[in-house]
Amino acid sequence: MRGRPTGALQALQRIKHGAFVSYKASRYPVSLRLEPIHRWLYSLRSYTYDPRDFESLGLGPREDGLVSRSETVPRRIYCFWTGDNPLTPNRQRSLDSLRRLHDPDGIEVVLVTPKNLEGHLVAGHPLHEDYERLHVVHRADYLRAYFLHFHGGGYVDIKEPAASWAPAFGRMDRSDAWLMGDHKPSRYLSPDFPEEDLERLMRRTSPAHIFQCAFIARPLTPLTSEWWARVNDVVDSVAEDLLAHPGVGRRGGDGYPLRWTQLLGQIIDPLTVKYSDKVLHDGSLRLSQRDYF
Prior knowledge:
alpha/beta; 6-stranded mixed sheet; Spore Coat Polysaccharide Biosynthesis Protein SpsA, Chain A
């Protein structure tokens, strides 16, 4: 029978726990400084997509002979406000700033709310029957997939922009890319996957991902098609639990069946790895991190 830890052992355990807590608290700010080095190293030895590494997600192989796309991307940026409450003052100021910045370039900034959502839906492609049971944050995640697949154009969180997106739209038009966004500031912003091997791979491949608060997409590409299909598959998989525990409050409430990144990061990040040659990174899509709420 083991005895109680000695005073020395207890002290060591406290030191170990304190070191772990300090590491968790410091790794993100440290990674912000080291991320450019991580991206450079990744450029020297990037990952080649292997569907076996994503078997648990069922991504499958890439199709051969993917068709290039070169049509003009719609000059439209969508923002979503999925609750019934009015925009907060900071969000309203950010929306006004977005519109003032892009109006001279002929780029429409569209705020989609519960009041006008129906008018943006494509005939024959309704929202999932459980859409209204999703938490308001997950509704916005769901709508990103819908709008960028069926409509294309841009999506942005309602935050103050760093610059007009006109040059980024132009760069997108000159390419055959399917998706454009800024780099993630840190590999630790990759969502938590249940499988440790997949989690490590996603952190390693973070230079291929995009920061999901702002991006531009061509409509109806294989990437957006998979994104849209997988979002609906996830909602299908939790439909029974959503019926009993719809999303409420700040994080969904007791019994809410979806993890916070399950409808966005855990879907789009692997797809940007799968189709990395069709993803562009552009720092002009960066947004201000001040006064978010």
